[in-house]
Amino acid sequence: MTELDTLIQLLARLPGLGPRSARRAALYLLKRRDQAMLPLAAAMSAAAAAVRPCSVCGNLDTSDPCAICRDPERDRAAICVVEDVSDLWALERTGAFRGRYHVLGGTLSALDGIGPGELNIGPLMARLGPDIELILALSATVEGQTTAHYLADRAAATGARISRLAQGVPIGGELDYLDEGTLTAALKSRRAM
Length: 193
What we know:
Order of helices and strands: HHHEEHEHEHEHEH
Strand order of the largest sheet: 4-3-5-6
Low-confidence stretches: none
CATH architecture of the domain at 74-164: 3-Layer(aba) Sandwich
Strand content: 5-15%
Largest sheet: 4 strands, parallel
Number of strands: 6
Radius of gyration: 21 Å
Mean pLDDT: 93
Shape: globular
Helix content: 40-55%
């Protein structure tokens, strides 16, 4: 196998890239070796050496604890639980949440052999107490809801207040395009105006 084949195979493993897209990306990088490929390789090497998970929340950063955990302006009484770092980043982009986070590293899934021991649950429970609000920001999938119920049951013993993200009709959503599960959740989560 040549170096080019190896590059294409490695690129094809990235999310959103198949073999054809990986070939196009490899060709692009090789044609722009000095402007794209070499800086990308250097940035990847530097990130691999410097970026680590935060020992408190599981976010990725070059320092431990991460910048969010170190920020004195953050509300220490609110912990938002997410499945993955990408979910944390999505919530941060909104600028709407000024508390702290906890990354589980996935969801419970009996089919995939993922139980509580494979997730970052123990450190989360150690962070909870009666003065903490636990916000469950997990996917509306069967696995996400199973994990949310499991966490709510475990967290109840700590005295923490437990809430979860609202579910239902998205802003700009038209009812006739929504699935039954989304409409059911929206009806159950309705509130007074």
